[in-house]
Amino acid sequence: MEKYGYRFSFGPWNIHEGADPFGPPVRGSQTFDDKLGVYKDLGFDAVQFHDDDAVPNLGELSPAEIRQAARAVRRKLDDHGLVAEFVAPRLWEHPMTIDGGYTANDPKAREYAIERSKRAIDIMGELGTDLMVLWLAREGTYMRESKNVVKATGYLVEAINALLEYGPQIRIAIEPKPNEPMDLAYIPTMGHALALGYQTSDPARMGVLMESAHSVLAGLDPSDEIGYSLAFGKLWSVHLNDQNGLKFDQDRSFGAVDLRRAFNQVLVLDTNEFWKVGMVGLDVKAIRTQPAELATKHLSNSLWVFLRLVELARSLDVEAVTNAIAARDYEQLDWIILSHLMGLD
Ligand code: XUL
Ligand code: MN
Fold first, then answer.
1. Strands, E, within 51-127: which ranges?
2. Residue 1 pLDDT > 90, yes or no?
3. Which end of the chain is more exposed for a tag (fewer CB within 10 A), N or C?
4. Residues with catalytic annotation?
5. Which residue's alpha carbon is at the smallest distance from atom 5 of ligand 1?
């Protein structure tokens, strides 16, 4: 399989039992070891982790025991020829994070969130990755008057500064999302995430991860969100997927809803040589109707769509595009793109 220098990743949560807020699991669980076994077969190179994907019972373990457990996971990765791309502290399930982690009103909850994130940095060290992803899931409100946004923004900067100090080698990529699980999130877009990074004690170690579905939920164009962060040299990872309008976060297969929107994401990544900078993460979920034995097609389909769109990006008639732009004939430009995607040129 020609991968054009790209490396691909996904997280164990992307092979999923199919539960949603309205119904129970519909497929059997696969163990972490089972999941590791399919990465290479599907064409993937790297694993994305939440802290407790690597060390499931981390709440009951000492820092030294957490490190030891993470070392065992590293050996499994080595055995499969895989690497860890990033670790993300899961700050949205524990009772201490009901009202948020870093921005909770309760100082004990804020302390919990920072301490737990430090354990995630320990795990990163053992797994051999310098990248932490922060999806700021509950950093926002259900009830706007319940928190003070100026204070909360300060808490976010303080928490990130504490992590940058604890892990002097780490880089942090913020993954913005405008809503879900919160009604309104504090860091909904790439612009918010970038600005927050520049307010921290070490902006050079602060970047972003763009997820297509999250951009669509924010009413924005994912390729513009990618391009904006690339312009600052800050796009360190992506979660490509697709999203049908302003609904729940669907995590559909890449390109499944809007192939042209997917093409434009690949075009901006590829023309800016993203393969030299970061991995292509596919944060996709199999739809609930898939049986367990067919619940990895969303991953392989997404990867193949990405690679085919790289080919289409590279075979685009650049001269025809340039001429159409020069003549301000954007209907012709429209046709060049559509006919290329349909294989008519
Ligand atoms: C949530 C989301 C998460 C993060 C990882 O919508 O995308 O899976 O990507 O914590
Ligand atoms: Mn994601």
1. 83-88
2. no
3. N
4. 50, 53
5. 135
Ordered domains of the chain (ranges, CATH)? 8-315 (3.20.20.150)
First to last CA, the chain: 25
Measured in degrees and rounded to the nearest 5, phi and psi for residue 104 equal -60, 150
Which bin fits 327, alpha (ψ -120 to 50), beta or left (φ > 0)? alpha
d(CA 283, CA 98): 24
| DSSP H helices in 10-84 | 32-39, 51-54, 63-80
The CA distance from 138 to 183, in Å, is 9
What's the whole-number mean pLDDT along residues 172-188? 98
For ligand 1, is residue 90 a contact (CB within 6 Å)?
no
The answer to whether the predicted template modeling score (pTM) of the entire model surpasses 0.90 is: yes
Q: Which of 91, 88, 283, 243 is nearest to 181 (CA)?
A: 91
Q: How far is the CA of 5 from the centre of ligand 1 (A)?
A: 25
Protein residues placing their CB within 5 Å of the ion ligand 2: 211, 239, 283
Asked if residue 177 has its Cβ within 6 Å of ligand 1, the reply is yes
Q: Is 108 exposed, middle or buried (0-12, 13-18, 19+ CB in 10 A)?
A: exposed
Q: What is the DSSP letter of 253?
A: P
